[in-house]
From TrEMBL:
Transmembrane regions: none
Protein name: Amidohydrolase 3 domain-containing protein
Gene3D superfamilies reported for this sequence: Metal-dependent hydrolases
An example Gene Ontology molecular-function term: hydrolase activity, acting on carbon-nitrogen (but not peptide) bonds, in cyclic amides
Residues in Amidohydrolase domain copies: 48-248, 398-503
Species in which this protein is naturally found: Candidatus Auribacter fodinae
Gene Ontology cellular component terms for the protein in this record: cytosol
Amino acid sequence: MPAYSRFLIKNANIITGDNTPCFKGMAAVEGSRIIYVGADIPFECEYVVDAEGLNLSPGFIDVHGHSDFSILLYPEASSKLLQGVTTEISGNCGLSSSPLYETAYNRWAPRWERNGLNVTWRTPKDYFSVLEHAEPAINFLPLLGHTNVRTAIKGYHSGTLDANELAQFKEVLNEALINGFYGISLGLAYPPGIFAHETELSVLFDAAARHVIPVTVHMRDEGPEVEEALDEMIRLAEKSGAALQVSHLKAYGTKNWHKAKLLCETIQAHHDKGLNIHFDRYPYTAFNTDLDIILPQALFDGGHEKALSRLQERKDELAIYLSTRFSYADAEKIIISDCVDEDCIGKPLPAIIGAERGEIFWKQVIEFICAVKFDVFANFFLMNDEELVTITRHPLCIIASDSSVRPMNIGRERPHPRTYGTFPRFLCMVLADNIISAEEAVYKMTGLPARKFGIPLRGLIKEGYYADLVLWDQRKIADRAAYSQPAHAPDGIRAVWVNGRQAVSDGKQTGIRAGKLLLKR
């Protein structure tokens, strides 16, 4: 009597996600689980997918996402699902969706409500309930943001936590972690993370070690002082015993590109000594963040209103600072991607500011930031291809998008193309340039991230595992997202299943939303 399954995929080139050689065969699925992987054999089933000439791999796991709020606006998750992502780890860079107490709520709720999202929750439990009700199309794993915890106690004010504040900090932290967060995230390049001293950070690392979850970190610096920033995180991880995930590892700026190799060597050396350390990176040479990242972040001591006032008062002083830190050529490589003034979108800074150079130019940049009240994002083209290859090919590198879910219709916005093309782009890069094997490339996007974050029964094509699957054509795989027109689905992603249900067929979404909220238990 032949075995039964709801569906099976036969004649596939199966890349299992564990960095072992691929093989031709089939995978059978019943319910949400894979029940057979191996040679093509007779099965009684409802329907058969003939994958002749196609690769079957686990669904891609995006370990560096920012969809905490946007997943509620766009639960269909088109930008990720169409590139083969079936699971996102969200809440990176120190900012998560919950808890939203005090300053965190006052800062983020109005911003998202302007976009049409009704922010009704405060606690993690309430947020998770809202998320489950939204029925997202992809699996969703939350991280707890340090920003959310610190602002509940000290707002955006600088300074170390006194004994009473530290006790409150620990209480908010521990109350949050029991809800099932998969990690703790730090954003030490942004306020209020920049104000955190080692005593405060040690509390976070120690808590992560107790809960057996990693700490993810956007380090204090990724340019001139990136080595010192990495040393700080390694020291904290070694002292606590917590696992460390360095977010979007980079060494930006011409003078720092050579440091990419040194960073990888440092990380490898500590990994060899037993530290559970990895890093992630997207396959692009531009990063995207708030334009105000060019400013001294201590300006934000006390919050954004005070920062605006300081910025207006100190224009001349700060213009001198910027003129010594950035060249006019650097300014030409900073392209506005989103702004409350939509006429600025897609333009480099000089096209918005004018032809003046030196301190006058940077003073006008400051005036522009003041005029839009910090509501402006940009793509910074400050890395190069050699730095990119050095980092992404390293065995401890996980591929990640550093993006939030977006719809395919985005109006005049120009989000970073990593939003729509990260995973196909990396596959295309690997196949075209033979940087690493296809098996290792898939491992970096599936089995390795699942193991790093301790995600049970995900990340592999294996019997008993959940059927998060991607069928893709390596002859046609290519990203089509450009900086000028990012909202394009990639080529070559033929089908995607999430928890055993087909969410993408022939490169188009089916409308099925079968994602799950996954909590650490």
